[in-house]
Structure formats: structure tokens, C-alpha cells
Amino acid sequence: MASVLLSSLCFPSDDAVIGFIMLIESADDTALDNPVVVEDLAMFLARAVVDEVLAPQHLEEIGTQFSGADSIGRKVLQMAKSSLKARLSGERILRCWGGGGTGSPGWAIEDVKDKVGRLLEEFESGGDIREACRCIKDLSMPFFHHEVVKKTLVAIIEKKNEKLWGLLDQCFSSGLITTYQMMKGFGRVAESLEDLALDVPDAEKQFTQHVERAKLAGWLDSSFCLTKPGPARA
């Protein structure tokens, strides 16, 4: 609930960074009552990155405050980074406190994936773009919008459906899907290209073209490359 609250409050990132630094600085006292404080703080940090409360580069900023090799702060940062680099890290971190791990009570990750799949099918079969955007917004899971990007891109590659590209364009231009979520979604598709090519032989060629098109549209940062990304993206 605390993680969901942080995501909902939309604090300025500078304030969030200061708050986490203060929290880690008090870890020695917290450890008296909570022996696994390092693990818990690391999970709060990782979850904050997944929820976009913090950007990945903020972990480096926080890390500059804890230079000692044996400090609790250094251990927390190392564990948080390791969690974020793990395969399928996003889904695991969303479940880190137990339960469904989402901001919507009773919704497991698989439920959300199913909802995304159904809304895309409805949109393809003649649905209205504004209605599709409303459904995405109603998921109330902006930290999981990379799933929308991934599923939409895969459908575009499989079906060469320009209408679906228009949906992503509308989601981005309206601010519904952020560049960060676009980067994660494109990264996840890059990871699955080998499997996708089994059914769509020119999947990699199509994906390359879509990446360049997305960069021109401003969806992707220029740092995004076509080499197969590491397992950090979930």
C-alpha cells in the first residue's frame, strides 16, 4: 500500500530522492526492529523505479551519498540494482509485497495482461481510439503500460496493422504512455524477436523499421539501440 501511495502522490523526483536518502540513512536504527531492513529498503527502491517514482539514474544519485563499501546504503543500492536487472524483474517487483502486486485490488499480472489483449482485439475489430485510450487509462497501472506497448508492437509485426500504430501514437501524444514505458515495451519486443521470427520471418526487419519510426516520432530516446537488450527489462 505504501508503494502504491508513493506512485499515486506524484511527488517531484527531487523530493523522492531526498526522502529515500533520509530513509536509508535511518536504516541502522530501523534494523533494531527489522533485521531484514536491507532487503526491504532495496525492494522499496526497486519498486519505486518500476512505478516511475524514481528514474534509474536516480539510483546513482542516491548511491553517491553512501560511498562506504560496507555501508547499509551501499548494500541497499546493490540489491535494488540486482533486482531490477533480473529477468522478468518488473512482474516480480510488482509482486514483491505479496498479493497481486498491482494498484488495482484483486488484479493479478495475468489478469491485466488478459485485459490488455482484449482491449486491443476490440480496437482492431472496429473500436474507437478514444475508447481504447480510456480503457488503458482505466487500468490505473501506468507503471505497466510497457505491456500495452509490447502487445501492440507484436500485433503490428504479425498483422501489419497501421491502425494499431495510430493507437500508440495517440497514447504517447496524449501523455498516457511515457517515453520510459515506450522504451521498456520496445525493449521487451527486442528480447522476444527470435521467438517472434518463428512465425514472422521478417520480424527483425520490421522491428528495426518501427524503432527508427518511433525515434522520429519522439517516442524513444536516441540511446535506444537495436542490439538485444539485457534481462533488466521485464
From TrEMBL:
SUPFAM superfamilies: ARM repeat. InterPro entries: ARM-type_fold (IPR016024), Initiation_fac_eIF4g_MI (IPR003891), PDCD4 (IPR039778). Gene3D superfamilies: 1.25.40.180. It is found in: Cytoplasm. Residues 1-64, 111-230 form the MI domain. It holds the Pfam family MA3. The keyword Cytoplasm applies. SMART domains: MA3 (SM00544). Keywords: Cytoplasm, Nucleus, Repeat, Translation regulation. Belongs to the PDCD4 family. This is MI domain-containing protein. It comes from Salix suchowensis.
